[in-house]
Amino acid sequence: MPRTIWSGAISFGLVTVPIRVASATEDHSIQFHQYHLEDMGRVRVRKICEVEDREVSQSEIGKGYEWSKDRIVAISDAELRELPLPTAKAIEIEAFVPLESIDPIQIGEGYYLQPDGQVAAKPYKLLVQALGRSSKVAIAKYAWSGRERLGLLRVRDDVIVLHAMRWPDEIRDPAELLPPPTEVSEEEIEGALALMEMMSRDDLEGPEFEDAYTDAMAKIIEAKREDKPLPETPEPAEPGKVVDLMAALQESVEKARSSRGEDADVHELPTKKAAAKKTAKKQSATKTAKAATKKTTAKKTSGRRSRSA
After folding, report:
1. I want to staple 10 with a disulfide (CB 3.0 to 4.6 A). Which of 17, 56, 161, 185 is the partner?
2. How many CB atoms are closer than 10 A to CB 197?
3. Residue 221: per-residue pLDDT
4. Residue 24 DSSP label
5. Residue 200 gets which letter from DSSP?
């Protein structure tokens, strides 16, 4: 059972839903400590008071804001909990929007919101069902850890999930990272689409979606613990030089085909002749349409002149 990291309420108009917040994710990565290599003594970070030049305990440490070089304004945890904001004690829903309207780059860590007691069961279920039927997500504001945040509320398996969000002005403009102007042919786009189709999946199940790094690290630790040779490191594949984009796409499709079996449904990449024929066909259709338009316009003009005469 995950521990509660915050408790308060969801405010939905005049409806209040008491909730408790728990982290929705777990970190399974291997953690390291720092050691002195000479004698393998543990290296720790000690908190030293610069005025008294001594180590201080956590109970002696508080928060403060540096107003100027010679003045610090102390802020207690109790004062942070009593901020003059409605979001200090509640997750205030501000609007409901389609999920597609939210840029994924804004969405961050996820938390499960659990109804706090029997009194919260009905309004909690009401919000779950309303969100489900609306096919929308709720955008809310809340205050944790000394700052007000933006959040997204959605439903996962009948449980409300709160995702921390970045404020719009915290997202950098990517315009300066754009590549120099270049042209991509229709043939190359169709080749990329064929490769995407070959690599499409219905889920994220399988060994390619497992944490290979942690497994490899565990093997190294086990080998060193038992004084055995370290596992051999496989030779990394050298990145190929992009010379012919179509050739690279074709080779990628072939590799995907072999990895999925010979019976895999593969969309063949367009050949240059087929692409050229397709382009010529489009051009011919365009010319025919233009000629028909000119002929119709000429007839109309001739008719007007006859009536005028």
Report:
1. 17
2. 13
3. 87
4. S
5. -
Place of tokens 């984009």: 245
State the first-to-last Cα distance of the chain, in angstroms, to the nearest integer.
93
* Angle (deg, nearest 10), helices 186-198 and 272-308: 130
CA nearest to 90, candidates 34, 35, 162: 162
| Identity of the highest mean pLDDT range in 211-220, 260-269, 282-291 | 211-220
Per-residue exposure over 78-106, b if at least 16 CB sit within 10 Å of its own CB, e if not: eeeeeeeeebebbbbbeeeeeeeeeeeeb
Tokens of 188: 């190359």
Mean pLDDT of all residues in 82-88? 71
Amino acid letter, residue 96: F
**Helices 186-198, 245-260: inter-axial angle, 10-degree rounding:** 20
Dist. CA 116–CA 22, nearest whole Å: 12
One-letter amino acid for residue 268 of the chain: E
55 pLDDT exceeds 90? yes
DSSP string of 102-159, one letter each residue: S-GGGEEEEEEEEE-SGGGHHHHHHHHHHHHHHT-EEEEEEEETTEEEEEEEEEETTE
The length of the chain is 309
* Alpha-helical segments (H) within the chain: 77-81, 121-134, 186-198, 212-225, 245-260, 272-308
pLDDT at 251 over 60: yes
Quote the radius of gyration of the chain (alpha carbons, Å).
Answer: 31
Structure token pair of residue 285: 């259709």
Ramachandran angles phi, psi of 260, nearest 5°: -100, -5
User: Would you say the C-alpha torsion 240, 246, 250, 252 has a positive or negative sign?
Assistant: positive
Tell me the C-alpha to C-alpha distance, in Å, between residue 142 and each of 35, 74, 107, 155. 40, 23, 15, 18
What is the rounded CA–CA span in Å between residue 23 and residue 3?
8
Residues 60-79 have pLDDT tens digits of: 999 999 999 889 999 888 77
> Which amino acid would we find at residue 164?
A
Encoded tokens for 56 = 């201080």
